[in-house]
Structures are given as structure tokens and as C-alpha cells.
Amino acid sequence: MGRLKVRLILAFLSLILLPIGVTGSLLQLQSSELEEKERSYRDSMNELESTLKRQLTHTSVSDVELNALVNQYAAEINIKDAEGETVFTSYKDHETAPHNEAIVDSSTLFHVQAEDGRILFVKLSSQLPFTDTILRSILISVGGGLIALILLIIGWTWYISRTILSPLKEIYAATEEVKEGNLDYPIQYRKKDEIGKFIRGFNTMRIHLKQSQEKEEQFKEDRKQLIANISHDLRTPLSSIKGYVEGLQDGVAQTDEMQKKYFRVIRQKTDQLDHLIEDLFQFSKLDLRQLPLDQQFVDSRVFFQSLLDDVVEDGKSKNVCIDVPRQIPSVTLSLDPVRITQVMNNLTENAVRYGADSIVVAISIDHDESNLTISVKDNGEGMEKEELTKIFSRFYRAEKSRSRESGGTGLGLAIVKSIIEQHGGALRADSELKNGSTITFTIPFLKKELV
Fold this sequence. Notes:
Helices cover 57% and strands 15% of the residues. It is an alpha+beta fold.
């Protein structure tokens, strides 16, 4: 049962039971007082009865100070003889004398033989206003219950307003702010009840909306930057290709050596265009979350040995020395060979693009024996520390003018990061300006006996 529901049930029960309890307690207290008065009355009447019997038996009625007894015992005395004639009465108008009301039978009847031999019938009644006392007791009890009910209503109204209505007003105000586009409007409510859960859900929704808005803004910015990059990066190689083709058409390259040079440049620029278009194609798949993985179980030693052999040969063609490990750990990996090959090629090409002529590849198993760690260290220009947090972002290019000349789009490391994360691994960069960079990534492996 939720906390809010419990509070509402407690409020409902308290509004019913507490006033009844207060009324009952006050009635019990008043009843005790009435019982005490009743005992005092009976004792008084018994004492008055004894006094009258003694005095009327030994003294004539006229000599008994009856009015003094009336005042002393706060009682009414009415004496009649056997014929019904009134001998004495304390009522001012004995013909219309009211019948006294009490909690119990308030009249005491007895007869006594007077000194003159007459039989006298005596009726004693209390002068105490028992009816008024009972009504006052009832009014006090009911009034106490009503006061308790009013106080409870005020208390619960304040409490519910503070714990339910006020948060609801905050929620309404927050929805108005969100509607106006203000997503930096958190609702402060720390109770763990139903309203608290709702508010936490609202805050979570607000944060997600804000993140989505930020992603959308970043997406728009990326699109703008993409268009700007495409317009520049495609125009440069296309202009070069157009110029060399026109040179060939105009007969500028007359010798075989010049023609070969022109064709070689055209080929390089075409490869550059192909590289740009491939990066854009990969980016579009990343953007649509459609970069597929064809994962296979491979032996790390066999796979990376073959991969690094190709990397070394490619490095030689670019006059880059690539040092690879002689002994590669043998573990079972679940990976997409094409994508991991793309990662390695991208990292080495990126190192060459930024001035490296020597690359060291290291492969090891991390300390908790759950990941294969691959690092690519170069002796290139390196980066400043503030750039390390940006290099895996889309379109970021350190030293952009150099990157443009070498055909970079700023998407390569973003693609690498996405591929590694889809494999369940992690990626990090370490670098110092003028001291090269090290890119390290991990791939989890299926645990078995390590070789």
C-alpha cells in the first residue's frame, strides 16, 4: 500500500475516531462527577431522613426548624398527615410544586408517628438541578468532540495542502515552464511516496527531454558542419583532379614520366575522395544506428597476427615503421573481423596523418583477465590535454588545416569509438604535445585457459 494512501486512510479514521474518543472520554469524566454528586445526595438525604425521624418523633412539627434543615441540606420537604392535609412544605406554591427530576429517583418517601400520635408522611426531594447538570455534561462532551474534529480538519487540511496540493502546484508550474521551453526547472520533493515517484518521473522526463534537445541541437550543428566539411573536402581533390585531367587533355604532360605523375596524383586524389565518401557512409550508418556487426569467434593470436602483418606491409608503403608484438596472447574473442580491421587501419592512418613515422602496437591481457588490451603508440605531433576529451567527437579535427590537406573528415575516431563500444569494449587516448599519442582499446574475451 502506498504511503499517500496510508496517510489518507489515517486522516479519514482520525476524523471519525478521535472526536468520538474525545466525546466518550469527556462523557466518562462527567459521568464520574455525576455519580459522585449522586452519592453525596443520597448520603445527604439519608442524614436528613434520620434527623427528621428523630425530631418529629420527639418534638412537635411546629417546634422543628424545618426551614433551617431545607437550607442546610439543599432539599425540599413536604409533610402531610393521614388525611392528606399539608402540614409543612418548603415549596412556595405547593399546589403547583414541580416534580423534581434527577439522575435516579430523587424523592425519598417515609412516614413517621409524630409526638401527638399523628402519622405523618414525609417526602424529601433534592434542590440540586440534576437535569441542568446532565445537559451541561452532554454539551461539554459534544463540544469537546466538535473542537477536536475542527482541529483535526484544520491540521489535516494544512498537512494535505503542504504535502499534496503544494507539490501539485509545483508540478503544474513546472509543466508550464517545460511548455515554454524551459527544461532547467527541477521540482524539489524528497518524500518517497506516490507523489515523490511521480515527481522523480517528471524530473527524469525533463532531463531526457533536455538531453534530447541538446542532442538535436548538436545533430543540427553536426549537419551544418558536415555540409561545410563536404563542400571544402570534396572541392579540393575534385579541383586537383579536374586540373590534372585538363592538363592531360591539353597536352601539358608530354613525356611518359609526366603523364605517370599526373595519373598518380589523380589516383591519390581519387583515393582521397573514396576515403571521404566511405567515412560519410559510415557516419550515416552511425547516425541511424545501423552500423551492423557480423561477430565471429576467433583466436586473438591468429586474427591479430594476420591483421598486423597487413598493417606492417601497408606501413612500409608509406615509409612508416610499425613495430608489432612477437607473442600475442591466445584467447577466444567474439568480434567482427572487418570492423576491427577497420579500427586498426583507422588508428594507424590517423597516426601517419598527424606526422608519425614510427608506430608501436602492443597487445596484452588486463589485470582482471577479462579484456584483451590493444594500444597503438606513435611518435607524431601529439595533442594538448584539453584536446583529448574531444578527439572522439564527430567532426573534431586537431590542427584542422593539416587534416584538410590530408583528407580527414573528423569522423574516423568517432567511428572507431562506436565500433569498440558495440563490441563491449572501451577506448581512451593519452598524448603529450610533440611527444606522440597512444590510443588504447579493449575487447572482452570468453574466459578459458590463457596461453
